[in-house]
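Hi support team,

I submitted a single chain yesterday and got back a structure, but I'm not sure I'm reading the token output correctly. Could someone confirm the output below corresponds to the sequence I sent? I've pasted both exactly as they appear in my results page.

Thanks,
R.
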Amino acid sequence: MELNNLVEFKSSPEIREKLSAYGIAKTFSEGDVILNENAYIKAIPIVVSGSIRVMRADEDGREILLYYIKAGESCIMSFLGGIHHDTSKVKAIAEEETEILFIPIDKVSSLIKEYPEWLDYIFRLYHKRFEELLEVVNAVAFKKMDERLLNFIKKKCELTQSHTLYITHEQLANELGTARVVISRLLKQMEDERLVKLGRNKITLV
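Hi R., thanks for writing in. Yes, this is the structure output for that exact sequence:
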């Protein structure tokens, strides 16, 4: 598999060759569950194309979006869980058709010893994910739901490179960890304020 087009992963040809040799390539359709909570981690994913959304659920099954993993990135949660032979604490779902290269955990450890740049890649991802998780905590703790909703729509549109977001009110509620009626009310309010235009299962930023 070609890794030369990955933006975030900047490395020598040698380590790219190793990753291609070690990795197992798989393609997932939109909505496919890539990793479930409490599942043992045997390999870490590197997203080659597409994107993944990472969710966390509470005991009642309510979910909240933590962050997205884009092309060239990996899941630091999977890396930490795999290295420590622990189970996954998050759920990973394909946001769109997504191609992933899975690197077995034992190979990940050997790459760290052999290539310092691989460790640097992991640390850079850790730093980025940590900042994104702080944003989630900040939003939940200090921001009103209408502000969180608008920021979420903008971020999702940026990810898909489109002004129109195809999503149901129920899906929005699940990803923001709230009730559907709350989302529907806030979206109608945003439409009245000419921030968005609503359609059947779609939202367009004005």
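A quick pointer for reading it: The chain has two domains: 13-141, 144-205. Let us know if anything else looks off.

Best,
Support desk
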